[in-house]
Amino acid sequence: MAGRFAPRPPRTTVRGGDAVLPRRTAGRVRALVPAGPLDLGLVLGPLRRGPGDPTFRATPDGAVWRACRTPAGPGTLRVSARGGQVRGEAWGPGADWLLHQLPDLLGASDDPALFAPRHRVVALTRHRRPGLRLTRTGLVLESLIPSILEQKVTADEAYRAWRLLVRRFGEPAPGPVPVPMCVTPAPRTWALIPSWEWHRAGVDDKRAATVLRAVRVAARLEQATELDPGSARKRLEAVPGIGPWTSAETVQRSHGAPDEVTVGDLHLPGIVGWALAGDRDADDSVMLSLLEPYTGQRHRAARLILLSGRVPPRRAPRMPRGDIGRL
């Protein structure tokens, strides 16, 4: 892999593919030209778990920073786009792995041309958001653990738990990060977190136990990236506490799975029902029926619906917010 990213002469140009630029800093650098429109915010946004996520940062210059635990070790990736070219710069032991994965991270393995809009709201959003691609991280645990933390709680509670645990037990991200960032804890570190630290972060025993069961078979779960999304979900759901909601939320990010729609969500069925049929009380069965014309691309259709801004009028929240860390 080192040879693939070896520096080339300073005047290397990029036409219709990708090239490795000369090393100008301590980071490893790769540049590529996307095959079509690319919106970094839309593509990488689903990887951020709340505004204070210590593994993710978007800076005012339009760049996106990610701190990751890769198969090669910790790494930090900075991605920026300018003049039709995307530039990735990476630091740490996982730098080469992150640069190798960069095309898939930016949706190179995704094919939006396979999608055919069947509803006006979907077609209009697709026209307005041509830069949407489905990211494929190639990493399972970094999406699985925060998805477990999001089970049956509000987003704010889950984001707080993720933020506190990663900052407390993760390690500093390598490279010249714009703000302090952290790489997620290693599986063994997750397994050794004391019960009172889970409690302090607001994580109940059920979710904590699910994370512990998952990290005990971390290597087996990471190997699921070699499987198709459906088979990967079956492997994830073999772990007690991981159900269809959690597995879908994971493979959407780890595999860039265009058809793995989330079921069991508190809000998504009503949003899809409202946008496509004016039915704010739609349940999972209604949602799946409405998305049936998009079979093979149901997750992409749901993403476009969410981006459309067509949401039903608000009602009083049905899920109370709690903080077991104060009990």
From TrEMBL:
It comes from the Bacteria. Keywords: DNA damage, DNA repair. InterPro entries: Alkylbase_DNA_Glycosylase/TA, DNA_glycosylase. PANTHER family: DNA GLYCOSYLASE, DNA-3-METHYLADENINE GLYCOSYLASE. This is DNA-3-methyladenine glycosylase family protein.
